[in-house]
Amino acid sequence: KENVDSRHNRGRGGETTRFHTVSVAQPVRFSRKCPTGWHHYEGTASCYRVYLNGENYWDAVQTCQRVNGSLATFTADQELRFILAQEWDLEEKTFVRKDQRRFWVGYQYVITNRNHSLEGHWEVAYKGSSEVFLPPDPIFGTAMSENENVLCAQLQCFHFPTLRHHGLHSWYAENCYEKSSFLCKRSQTCVDIKDNIVDEGYYFTPKGNDPCLSCTCHNGEPEMCVAALCERPQGCQQYRKDPKECCKFTCLDP
């Protein structure tokens, strides 16, 4: 404030005290809680990413585990519709037709009878939530072996927007050693302003518009946040604040 009530704010020399503030506290809007390249779905508080490098099912499992996730399973139709509606970055060396995309997901088809037609049932590959839904009867892949009693799940979705937004898809039971793109799923996490993943309980500055915010990571959310206010740079009329460093300025004066 430049004009302060002089009756209450006189300095020792009788001069009016002056305050200069660069910024004031604003409502904080945090950005998504997923690392770059992952898609966030609020309904499950989860992050999803398609990996384009073709890997067999077992290698895909290990890749997902290395990023603290697993091959995706789905808890409700809404979650599956969210996945089908996404425009994944798929300019890769595709393993099927260009208008169709197949991803390994976290289900396996256990064959129980090989008489006139294959009979069996879906299982979740890695036991987790009891609320996971199981796919309908699959289309059987072409690379099947007569000795295989366990096949792995591929979710096929479509590249064209009209088909994608109508939720059209198919489930395939495929030889687990075929190579395919795959879909990983992980819990949302805290991500700082420089896109680093933050562990539970640690201080960090969330992604957003305020580099002077310090929060505690709790269950993937920034909590107990404290903001700092910066004094403007002395002797500089025009300046720019660094968007990722607190109280760091660039003077723009000639």
Automatic annotation (TrEMBL):
GO CC aspect terms: membrane
Record-linked InterPro entries: C-type_lectin-like, C-type_lectin-like/link_sf, CTDL_fold, DGCR2-like_CTLD, IDD, VWF_dom
Domain C-type lectin per the UniProt entry, residue ranges: 43-185
The protein's name: IDD protein
Organism, as annotated: Rhinopomastus cyanomelas
